[in-house]
Amino acid sequence: MSDAQPSLSRPITLSSHMPDLPLVVWMVLLSIGLGLAGGLGATETVAAFNTGFGRALGEFALILLPSFTLAAALSRQDVASEAAGRTAALASPVAGAGMICPDTAYAALSPAAGRYKLSLAFGAYAGFKLLYPAGPLIVAAGLGAANATEVQPIVLLLCGVLLTVPVWAAGAMWGRFATRTGNVAAGVSSVATDAEDQKSDGRLWVTFAPFVVMAGLLTVGGLVGRTGIGVLDFLLFPKGALIAAAILALLQTPAAARRDCLDSAVRRTGSLLLVIGAASAFGAVLTGMVALDRLVPPGSGTLTLLALFALTVLFKLAQGSSMATFAAVAPVAAPIVVASGVDPIAAVFAICLGSFVAILPNDSYYWLVRRDALEHEKSEISVIRILAGGALVQALVGMALLLSVVALWP
Hints:
Elements: H1 23-37, H2 42-53, H3 57-75, H4 85-98, H5 102-113, H6 117-130, H7 135-143, H8 153-178, H9 194-207, H10 209-224, H11 230-236, H12 238-252, H13 255-289, H14 292-295, H15 301-319, H16 322-340, H17 344-354, H18 364-370, H19 380-408
Helix pairs in contact: 1-2, 1-13, 2-13, 3-7, 3-12, 3-13, 4-5, 4-6, 5-6, 5-18, 6-8, 7-16, 7-17, 8-19, 10-12, 11-12, 13-16, 15-16, 15-17, 15-19, 16-17, 17-19
């Protein structure tokens, strides 16, 4: 396998003359610069920044902290040490959503995937983007739609499942026909006996029990509604169900590793809250400077969805990280969604689908899959074609389905 090496003679581009700053720093500078350039005084600019920064942090803290706790707990379980390849591939979307990270899901399941590694890669990627409680819940919170009465968690869950199946299939088919060896990855295929398959399936059911519990709580909550009992209502609420799932995952984790899981969750949550706060502040300043209701005509559902899709593509291409893209783009897109009057559920999934584009070398997922499933590929151009092309196909298939449903069922 040959990793990409930095060139000794780098081409002169616009980015070569720009400072290499983290996304959060760019957001802060742009927020302050936009306010001052737009005629706001120093006090008004700081006030707008403060208001925007803290607007959604509480929502995200209650989502990200249990989500990353759940992810850390699952990563410490031997999810797929003896699982058959098909079982690992079929579990990949659930793993991607449940672990709130396609990298972690792929790393956990790939030892058993064998010749299904590329299918596993696209499945984990699709699950993380489209299945509750990963992409849809994070984006909905950023848009302010998580608490909207017209957006029910069970609807987000069902819509995500309906989109995930064809999107995942599109990626798997692309992977099969884009490689000379089909979806056979380098390495030793996983060979398991019937007894081993049954044992692996049993372990997978136990491992993913927190998601079964969470789905059950959300289903009951959607059917029953509010009961008037505070504790019960909280458990049937998305954040309560997520916390319950995280606690169950921690209980399945050895006692000695539980504190490490919580510490990991706190570190990951803290860094993302800073990005989210800066993006929210930028969105607040931008809203105060630009009359978005004049830029986005009411009722233009299709155009607004395409604009949200394109906006997310730009964030993803610039940032690389899918999670940082979710965190940054949703607060910026929120005023557009409000001004346009577009269906909030459709807006959530337009952003989720835009984040598929693309799996490139500035994404850690690229190198994880490249060094495992595509180790036999010697050309980086070929790897980019396979991974970026597959993610693009997934995004276009999903967006075509979303627009068709919106057009046929307004």
